[in-house]
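Retro notes, item 3 of 5
We never archived the inputs for the zinc ion complex last cycle. Fixing that now. Sequence and ligand:
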Amino acid sequence: MMLSSPKRRLITRLISRVAVTVFITLLMRLNAYALTAEVQPDEVIPGDVFLLKAQVSKNPAAAGNLPDAEFSGRKIDFFPDGNNYFIALIPVDIETKPERYTITIKSGGEEKNVHIKVKPYKFLTKKITLPEEKVILGPEDLKRAGKEAELLKNILSQTTSPGWDGRFKAPVDTKVSETFGVKRIMNGKKTSVHGGLDYKGQTGAPVKAVNAGTVVLRDEFFFGGNTLVIDHGMGLFSVYMHLSEFKVATDEKIAKGQVIGLVGMTGRATGPHLHFGFNLLGVRVNPASLFKLKL
Ligand SMILES: [Zn+2]
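Structure as it came back at the time:
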């Protein structure tokens, strides 16, 4: 049977309207169920930190469950950030091979890929010549320094829930005198890689907490002198060394910008300065990259 032209038009219109409705509904469903993920920034250098943020779908198989992902052979630790969002701060160890990495985030049967480019970077090498007696440590000093390194390692291996408050801010306003990653060659022998930033400073100048957290170490160390460590959660710690004085106590909750101590030259320091470092999940990371993150 042939339909009359107006009837045919009506049916065509109906069919197209149904098709559009079905299409929009599908799109909305897809949107509600889709796993999304992003990295910040998408280019780093070895020693940096990047942020991975994922929103899992409302699908019961995914909702509320930690997503699963790996970077450079290491499982990523995600933390809930409300509304099916999860965040992770990821350390790029200074030994990481520069290349473009793909991170596959898995959640409730879904997968999403993000990319992070690790660019090559040539860190400075610094040659230092000192009298041998200043370089070689006696057995007592060696034993003490070893014990302190072990204590610090244990503290830095804890992971608590996020405790920071927005972006990280530099602990002092002075200039950096030595950057992160500088290779030190002492009397012709490669000795260490600088694991933090050295800030210029006068003895007695205030040192501020780079963010909110809890004091987990306040002690006098052989190398670091008066050393303070603040736990910011998610395995991230800030470390302050060579202080002349402490202004806070162990276990004290600290606000961002609070004065925690004074610049000094305690421990092995050739002059007053602040050695400042970040440790993320047991990895020493470049403070400059954390200060840039929009948290
Ligand atoms: Zn230093």
